[in-house]
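Researcher: Dear colleague, please comment on this protein.
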Amino acid sequence: MGILVAGTVALDDVKTPFGKREKILGGSASHFSMAASFLAPVQIVSVIGNDFPKAHLDYLAAKKIDTSGIEVSEEKTFHWKGHYEYDMNVAHTDETILGVLTKFNPNLKEAQKNFPFLFLANIDPEIQMKVVNQMTNLSFVGLDSMNFWIESKQKSLWDVLKKADALFLNDAEIRELAQEASLIKAAKIVQKNGPKIVLVKKGEHGVLTVTKDFVFVAAAYPTEEVKDPTGAGDSFAGGFTSYLYSQYLQNKDNIYSMPVIKKAVIWGAAAASFCVEEFTTEGLEKTSIEQIKERCHDIHEFTSFEKH
C-alpha cells in the first residue's frame, strides 16, 4: 500500500542570498512525499485552505503522490515566511500563519488505517498521536518534530515518541529534548523511551544514526550549488523511509538490520542533496532515480578508505 504521511502542505515565502520566492509549495508532507515517491507509493494526510493553488496539487499528483487525503478548509493555508543568510544551516522565521492547522483534526478513512508505513511529519504532537492511534496494521512509524513542540508540548511529544520506530531531529533539537550536550548520549536517552533508531540531522555535516546495536556516521553529499535548504530534513526522511519500505517488500523481518539502515541513510542523504539545489521541491522534480543512485555511490566513494 505504501507510506502514509501526516504533516503540513503549505505556502512558503523564502529568501536566500541566491533568490526570493513567494507562495511556493512548502510543508513537511510535501517535501517528504517528493523524496519518497521515487521508491514508494505515498498518500498525504493534511489540510489546506481555499487559497491553496490547484496547480500545487496537480504538481504533486504528477509525481504520483496521492492527495486524496488532503482536506480543504475555509481557513487560510498554513504559510511560513523565512529567510537564510550565508549560513544555510540556520533558518530565520519572519512570520508563521498557522491558519488551517489551528482546527486540524484528522479522521482517517478505513483504507488509510491499514497502511503498513506511517510517517508523522513535523506537526503538533497531539495531532501526531491522533493519527497513529487510528492505525491498525503498522510495521513502521517514523516521527519528526522541532524545537517549538519540544518547548511548548514536550509531554505530548514524549508520549507519541513511545509509538515511533525512528525519530528524526537535528542536533540542537535532540540536545534540547534530552537535556544533554553530547549527541551520542542525547540520542541514547531518547532511544530508551521508544524509537529503535534515532537519526540526528546535522545539515551539511551529515547524519548521526544511533541504534541499540550500533552507531553510524554518514557524510552529506558535498553539494556545490545550494540555493534553498528548506525541506532538506523532510527530504532526507522521505528518502530514508522509502528505502526502508522498498526493503520491507522484500523481507519484512530485515528492515532494522545494520546494512539496510546504513543504505537507507545514504539514500536519504543523496535525495536531500537534490532538494537544496533549487527552491521549493524543484530540485527533486528534476531528479531521476538513476541520479540518486549515482550520488549514493559517490557518498560511499567519498567516505570509504582502505583499512590500515
User: Anything to note?
Assistant: The chain has a mean pLDDT of 93. Residues 105 and 216 are 37 Å apart (CA to CA). The longest helix spans residues 258-275.
